[in-house]
Design a protein that fits this description.
- The protein is an alpha/beta fold and 191 residues long.
- It is 45% helix and 23% strand.
- The chain is built from 7 helices and 7 strands, in the order βββββαβαβααααα.
- The chain is globular.
């Protein structure tokens, strides 16, 4: 009973007394988009679902981007997350891939906006810091901590799925403090 969240026109705020928050973590990509859904209740986290959306190579990028949008909308409709945690992009080599991934990331954020799901963005360094406790941790360390924190039998098969779960865990940690506001400060300044 009572209000569990309120919207101020730009941002959804959660009541700390709320029992559970469902978080959708997304690792953006054009070939593979990893996703992980967790329920977070104070310091306890439980896996709801994980997987990946794949688009075939050899078809136009605009068709692949449409497929990503449709798949993310379906995931949102199926699991009804309270919020979404998305990785900020970082590329230092292939510009062609960077543009296609950025386009896919754009429709991922669009799907969140269209479905009224609040989203938060985190850098890989922030995710590693939150999940492992060290911002320069190796991928294997992050994957092992995801397994431990969610009580999984084994590490998720796809890196993209493990990364998405790590993003959801990162937001679960950040949402319990004011650090999410600091992590997302740059975005707020742009709004």
């Amino acid at each position: 009973a009572g209000i569990s969240a309120f919207y101020d026109g730009r941002r959804l705020y959660y009541d700390r007394r709320r029992k559970r928050v469902r978080i959708l973590g997304i690792d953006p990509g054009i070939a593979i988009v990893g996703y992980g859904v967790i329920d977070s209740e104070r310091e306890k986290m439980r896996l709801v679902a994980m997987g990946a959306s794949r688009t075939p190579t050899g078809i136009p990028v605009e068709k692949r981007v449409e497929m990503v949008y449709d798949d993310i909308c379906e995931i949102i409709d199926t699991y009804k997350p309270d919020c979404m945690s998305v990785e900020e992009l970082f590329f230092n080599t292939n510009q062609k891939t960077a543009i296609a991934v950025a386009q896919a990331r754009g429709v991922i954020l669009l799907s969140a906006m269209k479905k009224n799901v609040d989203f938060f963005e985190y850098t890989p360094l922030q995710v590693k810091q939150s999940v492992v406790g060290y911002g320069r941790a190796e991928k294997a360390q992050v994957m092992e901590m995801v397994k431990i924190m969610l009580s999984l039998e084994k590490v998720p098969k796809l890196d993209d799925t493990a990364d998405a779960l790590a993003l959801a865990i990162c937001h679960a940690h950040a949402s319990q403090s004011k650090i999410k506001d600091f992590y997302n400060l740059t975005k707020k300044k742009l709004l």
